[in-house]
UniProtKB/TrEMBL annotation:
Record-annotated Cysteine-rich domain positions: 4-81, 126-221
Any one GO molecular function term: oxidoreductase activity
Record-level GO cellular component terms: cytosol
Protein name: L-lactate dehydrogenase complex protein LldE
Top-rank taxon: Bacteria
Short name of one Pfam family: CCG
InterPro entries recorded: Cys_rich_dom
Length: 244
């Protein structure tokens, strides 16, 4: 299968090491990976702010670039969710082939590749952050509000990493307060939610917090640094690719 690697704009600009780790990990598993260099933002910031007209040309470009691939894989649950859940409606009347092939790296490794062995070693205590889009739009873990069997694809993959100790905070799928535009428009509420969430991660005794969205990790990292809290943040794919 041919994989198109989609590296979201904020990952490219602020956390390029996450994109590099994604590429290295996919290649280490013997997969055929391509990175279309003309790729742009998927349109999520504009769409979430209500400016769908501005998101439309970006969605068209995304579909044009990625429709030839068997799968489109991204190290960002929120961007993958926006493409898969919102591009089809946005592109009504236009071709829309890429949206249904787009997956977050965690669900792709877990559900498609079905990884059962990794070379990675990460000898730290790590608290898992379940971002809202990953839980409720992509099903990376079970939402606590539903009475259904518990599962967590992030934890399933992390358990393949040698030396790691995995923990979860109290209220494991509660929002960290980022929410894209929400963090800009409701700064005080966003900050309070972030402080509560970081403190719950700290209460686990973890040295690191990990998750599938650099945006959520960025929000919590900013709060932790401002409050001088002793905890670090790392994208889950960097742990899965550790040592490559």
């Amino acid at each position: 299968m041919k994989i198109g690697l989609f590296v979201p704009c904020y990952v490219d600009a602020l956390y390029p090491e996450v994109g590099v780790s994604t590429y290295r990990l996919l290649k280490s598993l013997g997969l055929d990976v391509d990175y279309p260099e003309r790729q742009t933002c998927c349109g999520q910031p504009m769409g979430n702010a209500g400016f769908e007209g501005m998101a439309l040309p970006l969605a068209k470009t995304f579909d044009e670039l990625f429709s030839p691939y068997d799968y489109v894989v991204a190290p960002s649950a929120s961007c993958a969710a926006y493409v898969r859940c919102f591009h089809p409606n946005l592109l009504k009347g236009h071709t829309c082939e890429a949206a249904g092939k787009t997956m977050d790296i965690v669900e792709f490794l877990h559900d498609v590749v079905k990884v059962d062995h990794l070379q990675a070693r990460f000898p730290y205590r790590v608290s898992v952050h379940n971002s809202c889009h990953g839980v409720r739009e992509l099903g990376l873990s079970s939402p606590s509000e539903r009475h259904e069997p518990r599962y967590n694809k992030i934890i399933d993959l992390l358990q393949l990493v040698r030396g790691i100790e995995i923990v979860e905070p109290e209220r494991p799928d509660e929002c960290c307060g980022f929410g894209g535009m929400f963090a800009v428009e409701e700064q005080a509420v966003s900050r309070r939610m972030g402080i509560d969430k970081v403190n719950r991660h700290l209460a686990t005794g973890a040295q690191y917090v990990t998750g599938p969205d650099s945006s959520c990790l960025m929000h919590m990292q900013g709060i932790a640094e401002k409050e001088h809290l002793p905890i670090r943040f790392i994208h889950v794919v960097q742990i899965l690719a550790a040592g490559l």
